[in-house]
Amino acid sequence: MDAPTSTGPARHVRPRRSVGPVGRAVALVLTGAVAFALVGVGATYLRLQGNIETGDVEALLGEDRPTRDPDPDDEFDGKDLNILVMGTDIRDEENVAIGGAADGVGSDTSFLLHISGDRSRVEVVSIPRDTLLPIPECTHTDGSVSPSYASSSFNSAFALGAGADEDLTSAAACSRRTFEKATGVVTDEHVVVKMDGVVKIIDALGGIPMCLPEPMVSSDAGLSIGAGDQVLDGTTAIAFLRARKGSGFGLDAGSDLARIERQQYFMSAVLEEVQGDALLGDPGRLVAVLDEVTKSLAVSPGLASLPSLAGLGYSLRGLQPSALVTVTVPNVTAPTNRNRVVWTSEADVLWERISADEPIVQEPEPAPEAPGADGEVPAPQEPAAPEAPVEEPAPATEQPAAETPLCG
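Structure tokens predicted for LCP family protein (408 residues):
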């Protein structure tokens, strides 16, 4: 594995105060709370609870990390939460039909969901899958240990943990361990979403309305879709999310960073659909969606309880849209491989703020009071001598803030 030795022009990602991919987690929690209130206990509750696959990774994360003592009555009460969310391209029988055959299993999409302790903020940090990071030794559920690597792509941690047995618990543990070692941020929970699950969730929702600026074609992802008003069914949606190379809507760049932007567009559209009255006002349809959602997840124990999710959702009931922020980890192209990225020093600041449960977007300081604002007339000053011109540095490349691509 090559180690980076220098840096290129930095990519600074403008923080986005909108719903973005946070919808994938927050919307599920909120609708889960509604569903719990609607169906209560009984056969429906038991079916949904039984759908959720649980993987306890605490024993696999090592001893060099703090632990928390949860409140037995409300596990999440008053605590800030860091949840690592991973969308996997595991190729079981159903996923091979969607993504084609491939060796091994990897994490196709990853982001950290941070929920502040006072429930006033929800922040999502997208992690490019091609980020080069040190991969530590990882212990698996069978007791075996995978070797460490000085530098490898972040999504390889998931593959190393999964191994030949495609063990999602070990895969999640290795990803969390790699993330924690690289950032110093302790993860409290995790969620793994399989691609066939996304297909079924989207189909249960009846498709996702979007408006595309231009036609998109990606032979690798099996995507061919026109411009303008569209309703993406599950199969088309997963192709849209997986597409990286091709033509149209940023596919020409072949960049994982451009794909993250498209995924943010899509998840904004999903949140619009989930929050609509058509779903929340139809208990039967809502339970059908939740049935597919709960079947599609492999989660840590703290997120496996529907009552706990309902409590978390209720605690977020007053959250304002302006409190939802999404960013991508600040990064630069790796000098050893233009298809990989490394984090900048700005990423260190980002992780420090998350660890301290501080807003990742700092409020601007008030403008200084204008001279003479207190009524006094300032004394005249001698004009300053002209300064030598200073060459401005080249502007950093920013990813444009994404807007929800909904029509109408």
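Confidence is low (pLDDT under 50) at residues 1-42, 91-102, 383-408.
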